[in-house]
C-alpha cells in the first residue's frame, strides 16, 4: 500500500481530497488526513467570528466521509523529510510514502516588540474566538485599533462596527491608503464607507512596538484598549523549521508539479507554497486540484501536465449589506459583490 498523508484540513487539504476521490483512486493508495480539529474552519470568515456577527458553528464544516479516507486528529510538531515521518504531539509518528503539506499560515509580526504578546489574532479558530471574547467584553466606548489595512483588517473593522456600534474603532495602516494592492477607486470607496460609519483610518503609521495599553507610531504612543494584528502572515512554524529553499516570505520553493525538488514525494499547497499569487483560500483550492491531477498521473506512472493557475478574482465585505471586489481588472462595489461573497460562502459550506 502507498500512503498519502495530507497535513491540514483547510481549503487546500480538502480541495485535494475532493479531487482525489472525485475519480478513480488506485486500490493500493491509502489517504490519511491529519488535523488538530475535527472540522474545517472557514478561515476567510474568521473576521466575522471575531467581530461577533456570526456564531462559531457558522464558520466550521464537517470533514467529508469516504471509505478510504482515514482522519487522524493531532498537532503536527515537525516533519522528518529523510525518514519520511510526521511527528505529532502525544501520538506516535506517522509514516508516509507521499506527503502534502497544507498547514496554512500564522501571524508575521515583523520583529515588532510586544506585538505577539499584546495583540489579538485572526489566524486560527481558537485565536478568533479569543479575540471575540475580549472584544465583546470591552466597556462601551472602548478604543479598538486594528493594525493593518489589508482585506482582513477592513472586513473585521466593518463587521465590528455593526456588532459593537458603541466602540471607537480605528485602522492603523503603514501605507497611504487601505487595500493598497487594489485600484485607487476601490480604496476610495472603502475610505468613504468607513467615514460614513465612523471608523477612523490612520495612514502612514509605522508600528514600532506594542504595549498592553498603547500602540507606538515610532516614538509616539497611541492609547488603546485592545489591538488586533492583521499586518502580515507567514507559513506556520512546522514549515519555518524545514531546512528547504524558500522565498522572501518564507514559502517553500517548488518545481512545476508543486513538489519539493529535493524530495519529490512531498507536495506543498497554499500559504506554505511559493506561488505567484497573494496567499488566499482560492489559490490554495485551485492549486490543490492540480496537485490531485499530478498525484493521479504519478500513480499511473505518466508524466504530469499542469496548466498555469488562474484565479477568478477577490471579494470582500463591508458588513452585511455592502462589499467590493476585483474581477480581473474590473472593480465592483456595493451590494452585488456582497451577495456574490455570500454565495461563495454558501457553496464552500456545502462543497463536500
Describe the structure.
The chain is 28% helix and 29% strand. It is an alpha/beta fold and 352 residues long. The protein has two domains: 2-36 and 74-106 and 233-299, 3-Layer(bba) Sandwich (FAD/NAD(P)-binding domain), CATH 3.50.50; 109-231, FAD/NAD(P)-binding domain, CATH 3.50.50.60. Strands 5-2-1-9-20-19 form a six-stranded mixed beta sheet, with no helix packed on it. Strand 7 and strand 8 (91-95) form a beta hairpin. The longest helix has 19 residues, at 281-299. The mean pLDDT is 95. This is NADH dehydrogenase. Keywords: FAD, Flavoprotein, Oxidoreductase. Belongs to the NADH dehydrogenase family. One of its GO terms (molecular function) is NAD(P)H dehydrogenase (quinone) activity. Its cofactor is FAD.
How many helices does DSSP assign?
A: 9
**Strand-residue proportion:** 25-35%
Q: What do we call the CATH topology of the largest domain?
A: FAD/NAD(P)-binding domain
Low-pLDDT stretches:
none
List keywords for this structure.
FAD/NAD(P)-binding domain; 4-stranded parallel β-sheet; 6-stranded mixed β-sheet; 28% helix; 23 strands; 352 residues; globular; 9 helices; 2 domains; alpha/beta
Question: Topology, please?
Answer:
Layout: E1 2-7, H1 11-21, E2 29-35, E3 39-41, H2 46-51, E4 60-62, E5 69-73, E6 76-80, E7 85-88, E8 91-95, E9 98-101, E10 105-107, H3 115-118, H4 125-136, E11 143-147, H5 151-163, E12 168-172, H6 184-196, E13 199-202, E14 207-211, E15 214-217, E16 220-223, E17 226-229, E18 233-235, H7 237-240, E19 259-260, E20 263-268, H8 281-299, E21 314-318, E22 322-327, E23 330-334, H9 335-350
Parallel strand pairs: 1-2, 1-9, 2-5, 9-20, 11-12, 11-17, 12-13
Antiparallel strand pairs: 3-4, 6-7, 7-8, 10-18, 14-15, 15-16, 19-20, 21-22, 22-23
Helix pairs in contact: 1-8
Amino acid at each position: 500500500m502507498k500512503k498519502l498523508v495530507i497535513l491540514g484540513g483547510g481549503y487546500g487539504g480538502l480541495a485535494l481530497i475532493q479531487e482525489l476521490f472525485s475519480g478513480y483512486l488506485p486500490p493500493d493508495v491509502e489517504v490519511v488526513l491529519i488535523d488538530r480539529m475535527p472540522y474545517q474552519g472557514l478561515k476567510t470568515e474568521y473576521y466575522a467570528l471575531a467581530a461577533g456577527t456570526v456564531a462559531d458553528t457558522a464558520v466550521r464544516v464537517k470533514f467529508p466521509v469516504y471509505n478510504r479516507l482515514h482522519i487522524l486528529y493531532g498537532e503536527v510538531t515537525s516533519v522528518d523529510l529523510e525518514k519520511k515521518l510526521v511527528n505529532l504531539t502525544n501520538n506516535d509518528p506517522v509514516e508516509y510514502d507521499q506527503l502534502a503539506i497544507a498547514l496554512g499560515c500564522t501571524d508575521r509580526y515583523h520583529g515588532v516588540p510586544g506585538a505577539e504578546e499584546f495583540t489579538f489574532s485572526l489566524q486560527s479558530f481558537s485565536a478568533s474566538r479569543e479575540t471575540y471574547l475580549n472584544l465583546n467584553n470591552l466597556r462601551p466606548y472602548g478604543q479598538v485599533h486594528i493594525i493593518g489595512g489589508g482585506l482582513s483588517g477592513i472586513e473585521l473593522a466593518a463587521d465590528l462596527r455593526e456588532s459593537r456600534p458603541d466602540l471607537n474603532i480605528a485602522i492603523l495602516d503603514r501605507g497611504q491608503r487601505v487595500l493598497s494592492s487594489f485600484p485607487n477607486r476601490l480604496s476610495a470607496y472603502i475610505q468613504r464607507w468607513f467615514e460614513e460609519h465612523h471608523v477612523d483610518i490612520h495612514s502612514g503609521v509605522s508600528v514600532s512596538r506594542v504595549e498592553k495599553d498603547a500602540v507606538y507610531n515610532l516614538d509616539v504612543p497611541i492609547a488603546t484598549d485592545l489591538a488586533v494584528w492583521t499586518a502580515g502572515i507567514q507559513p506556520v512554524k512546522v514549515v519555518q523549521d524545514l531546512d528547504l529553499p524558500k522565498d522572501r516570505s518564507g514559502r517553500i520553493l517548488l518545481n512545476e508539479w508543486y513538489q519539493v525538488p529535493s524530495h519529490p514525494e512531498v507536495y506543498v499547497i497554499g500559504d506554505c507554497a511559493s506561488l505567484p499569487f497573494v496567499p488566499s483560500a482560492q489559490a490554495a483550492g485551485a492549486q490543490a486540484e492540480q496537485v490531485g491531477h499530478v498525484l493521479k498521473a504519478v500513480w499511473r506512472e505518466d508524466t504530469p501536465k499542469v496548466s498555469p493557475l488562474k484565479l477568478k478574482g477577490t471579494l470582500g465585505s463591508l458588513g452585511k449589506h455592502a462589499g467590493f471586489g476585483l474581477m480581473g481588472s474590473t472593480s465592483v462595489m456595493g451590494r452585488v459583490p456582497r451577495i456574490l461573497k455570500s454565495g461563495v460562502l454558501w457553496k464552500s459550506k456545502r462543497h463536500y
